[in-house]
Amino acid sequence: MTESTPQTSPTPTTRSAPAAEGTSRLAEATALGRTTIAATVVQKIAGIAAREISGVHAMGGGVSRAFGAIRERIPGGGTGAANVAGVQVEVGEKQAAIDLDIIVEYGASIVELSRAVRRNVITAVERMTGLEVIEVNIAVNDIHLPSEDVEEAPATPTSRVE
Questions:
Q1: Residue 73 lies in a domain
Q2: Which residues in 72-130 belong to E strands, given as ranges?
Q3: Composition bias, kind Low complexity: at what positions (predicted)?
Q4: What is the CATH number of the domain that holds 58?
């Protein structure tokens, strides 16, 4: 009589070094195949989740927003990992770390806003990708004042004659 050992599903192989920036990372490997998620996907999810919180006026500092506006005008320049202003990600096989640069609306509690942004980003990224978010670092670069929204209306040309 021979003794049988229970067979287990194959375990995913791990890579010792993370892949280069912008390439796909391993998120799940099963006997039926593996799923990879590009860093840009995590970056976009984090950016959208951060903007969903009331009190976040914009993402990125002044310089990154200016470069983003220039990049959008260049054909083909609006794609890639650097496209999401104010969001940097580091993605491994099972974990992700996220850095956010935000501009806060005047009057919002930065402490409460940071908690809400962090919670929403972690929830969205983990739910959508299955990656464990180990940290979300938030840098508040500026405060947006309501008076900055007021644009001077262009003067209507007045006719010299009636």
A1: yes
A2: 87-91, 95-105
A3: 1-20
A4: 3.30.70.1350
Q: Which residues pair with 141 in a beta bridge?
A: none
Q: Which pTM does this prediction carry?
A: 0.66
Domain count, the chain: 1
8 A C-beta contact, residue 129 and residue 92: no
Which tens digit of pLDDT belongs to each residue from 43-88?
999 999 999 999 999 999 755 545 555 555 556 555 444 468 999 9
- What whole-number distance in Å separates Cα of residue 152 and Cα of residue 134? 45
Closest CA to 87 of 68, 73, 102, 71: 102
d(CA 160, CA 29): 76
The C-alpha atoms of residue 130 and residue 37 are separated, in whole angstroms, by 10
Question: Residue 136: pLDDT above 80?
Answer: yes
* Residue that has been written with the tokens 């969903």 in this structure: 52
- Note whether 87 and 47 are within 8 A (CB): yes
User: How far is 134 from 122, CA to CA, in rounded Å?
Assistant: 9
**Average pLDDT for residues 98-113, to the nearest whole number?**
97
Q: Say whether pLDDT at 133 is over 50.
A: yes
Measured CA to CA, the distance from residue 103 to residue 84 in angstroms comes to 14
Share of the chain above pLDDT 70, in %: 61
